[in-house]
Amino acid sequence: QVQLVESGGGMVQAGGSLRLSCGASGRAFRSYDMGWFRQGPGKEREFVSGIRWSVGNTYYAESVKGRFTIARDIAKNTVYLQMNSLKPEDTAVYYCAALRGIRWRIEDVDYWGQGTQVTVSS
Question: How far is it, in rounded angstroms, from Cα 68 to Cα 110?
Fold first, then answer.
């Protein structure tokens, strides 16, 4: 079992920044890669960013490249998502995920966090 607990969501004006955190626990979690997904109002859940836990390689959706940065702290078993230059269209519930697979697909997610709301006002 893997447990994921997110924090750091909130409300911010367009152009602002937020940092999300996801603390992971459970014996098996280091065998997973970690990702962030989001689901906006009336939209399907989508991939935002991912990191290969073992080697640190990072991946981003085109919509967030250059604005979001994913990182991990191995000692703290925590993954972060630094979000800069936020736009109203980034408004969504953001979910931390533990998954295995090459393509960062929702169907490859084995564990989800509870989600944290990010609201960006114009």
Answer: 24
